[in-house]
Amino acid sequence: MDLRSRQFASLYRHEISNGQLRSNLSKATLQAVDKRAQSFQEVDFPFLQKEARNIKREAISNLNELLSRFEDNARRNGCKIFYAQTPEKANAYILGVAQKFGARTAVKSKSMVTEEIGVVPFLAKYGIEAVETDLGEYIVQLAGESPSHITTPAIHKSRTEISRLFHEKIGTELNDDPAFLTAEARRVLREKFLSADLGISGANFLIAETGDVVIVENEGNARLSTSAVKVHVVVTGIEKVISNFSDLRIFMRLLGRSSTGQKLTSYVSLLRGPKGEDETDGPEEVHIVLLDNGRSNLLGTEHQEVLHCIRCGACLNVCPVYRSIGGHAYGSVYPGPIGSLVTPLYFGNENAPDLPFASSLCGNCTEVCPVGIEIHHQLLAMRHEIKSKSGTSVERFIFKNYRKTMLRPGRYRLMSKVVRALARTSLLRLLMRGWYPYRETPQFPPRSFREMYKSGEIK
Fold first, then answer.
1. Is residue 379 part of a domain?
2. Residues 6+ apart with CB under 8 A from 338
3. Which residue in 17, 58, 163, 424 is a FRET match for 405, CA 20 to 30 A apart?
4. Distance, CA of 215 to CA of 136 (rounded, Å)
C-alpha cells in the first residue's frame, strides 16, 4: 500500500480548496445518509446493532478457535489456505499462484484488503495485468488514483468528470448518462472476464462452521471474477470470520442499509470451493489468503473492537471532516473516521501521527456504526497515546495546567478574566496562531456568567 498519511497536513490543504470535490462529496454523502435513514425505518436498528456488536465481540474474542474451524472446513471443501503476516508475504503467495497457472491477466473484484496490500501494482511489476471490475474501482484505476471511499471508490468524481475520463482512456463519446457509462465499462470488462486466467476477490465474511466465503456486492462482477477463471484467490483479513449462518443473518440486515441504503444488496455469493468433477462452472483451484498485517496485535488491547468493523462506510458519510476533504487527503486506502483508527493501528502511529486528530469528535460515526464501535472514543484514546509519546514539552505544560485550572474554581475564574482581557488584544491570536488560520475567532463576553449573576443582572 502506498501510505502517504504522514503528508496529511499538505494533502488536506490541497483537497479542501477544491470546490468541485466538496460539491461532489456533499451531494453523494447526504444522499447516502438520507437513504440509510429511510431504510432503517423498517427495522429495529438499536436491536440489530446490539446483536451485531455481541456477535463480533464473541468472534474476535475467540478468533484463533474460529479461524482454526474455518481452515479445517475450507480445506475439507478443497480450498488451499495461506496465512500471511505481512502484505509482502500475501503478494508473494498470490504471485506464486499466478505463475503456476501462467496467468498474464487477472480480474479483481472490489476488495479493501487487496488495496491494503497493493496487489495490482505488485503484479504489474511481473508483467501481470490486474483489472478492477467494480465500476467505481475501474474508474479510479483508469484515473491512476486510489479509492476515495470504502464502499463508493469514485464518490469524489462527477458524471462529467467520469465521461471525460472514459473519453480519454477508452475512447468513448462524451456522454455523462450513467446508463451509457455503465454499458461502456461493461463492454470493456466483458472481454477481460473472458480472457483472464486468474480471479482475485476479497470477502465480507468467513463462516467458520462451513468454510464458506461470503461476498456481498451490487454489480455481479465478483461472481464473474470468481467463477469464470481457472483459479480464484480470496484475500481477506483474519477478522472477517464469524461463527455460523445464524450470525450472518444479522449482518445481512445491517450491511446493505448502512452502506447504500438498500434492504439487501443485489448479489450475495456463498463460495465453498473449486468446481467438482461433474461441474462445468467454477475455478479449478481456490486459494484463501488470510492477512494479519497488525490485526492480531490489537487482540487483548483497548483497541480490539476496531476489528469489529464490517467496512460499510457509514461513518464516512456522516463525518464533517471527510465531507470536506474526501478520502485521498488521508493518504491511506482506509479513509474517514474508521480509517483514522485502522491506519495507525495496522501500520504504526509513526506512519499516521495526524490521522486520529482528523476528527471533530462529534460522535456521528459512533451513532451510525452498525456494530457499535465507539469510534470517537477510540480516536480520543489514540490521540492520548500519540501525544504521550511525541507531545512537545509546551503541549504537556498547557494540558497539565489546563487540568489544574478546570479542577480549581478560583483558578478557573482568574484564567477566565485573563483570557477575556487577552481577547481584546492581538496577543491571544499570537499565542494561538496554530488555531486561528483554520477557525473563526471565538467571541468572549465582556463579563462572565458568574459576574452577571452576582450583580443581579441574571436571576
1. no
2. 150, 306, 309, 311, 315, 316, 365, 373, 375
3. 424
4. 17
Q: Alpha-carbon distance 159 to 138, whole Å? A: 14
> What integer is the mean pLDDT of 345-354?
91
**Which parts of 202-349 are beta strand (E)?**
205-207, 212-217, 231-237, 241-242, 267-271, 285-291
The residue range of the domain holding 399 is: 395-454
Q: Dihedral, CA atoms, 242, 346, 81, 228, nearest 10 degrees? A: 90
Which of these, 130, 68, 73, 110, lies nearest to 286 by C-alpha position?
73
pLDDT at position 389: 76
Query: Which tens digits make up the pLDDT trace of 371-424?
Result: 999 999 999 999 988 888 776 677 778 778 888 999 998 898 888 888 888 877
Choose among 343, 274, 295: nearest CA to 84.
295
Q: Angle between the 45-61 and 63-76 helix axes, to the nearest 10 degrees?
A: 80
- For residue 434, the number of C-alpha atoms closer than 13 Å in the C-beta half-sphere is 2
Cβ burial, residue 145 (10 Å; 0-12/13-18/19+)? middle
- Reported in sequence order, the residue ranges of 208-257 that DSSP labels E, i.e. its strands, are 212-217, 231-237, 241-242
pLDDT, mean of residues 310-339: 96
Any idea what the CATH number is for the domain that residue 158 is in?
Answer: 3.40.50.10420
Question: Which residues, in sequence order, are bridge partners of residue 287?
Answer: 80, 233
Question: Distance between CA 299 and CA 375 in Å, rounded?
Answer: 17
Strand partners, 213: 206, 271
Among 296, 318, 336, the domain boundary falls at 296
Query: How far is residue 333's CA from residue 25's CA, in Å, rounded to a whole number?
Result: 17
Count other C-beta atoms under 10 Å from residue 23's C-beta: 11
What is the structure's pLDDT at 219?
86
Q: In this structure, are residues 364 and 318 in contact, taking their beta carbons and an 8 Å threshold?
A: yes
Picking from 235, 258, 284, the residue whose alpha carbon sits closest to that of residue 87 is: 235
- Is 94 part of a structural domain of the chain? yes
Distance CA(240)–CA(88), nearest Å, equals: 20
Indicate whether this model's pTM tops 0.90.
no
Residues 419 and 291 in one domain: no
- CA 377 distance to own-chain centroid: 18
Give the three-state DSSP class for 285. Answer: strand
Mean pLDDT score of the chain = 91
Res 435 pLDDT > 70: no
Q: Is 24 inside a domain boundary?
A: no
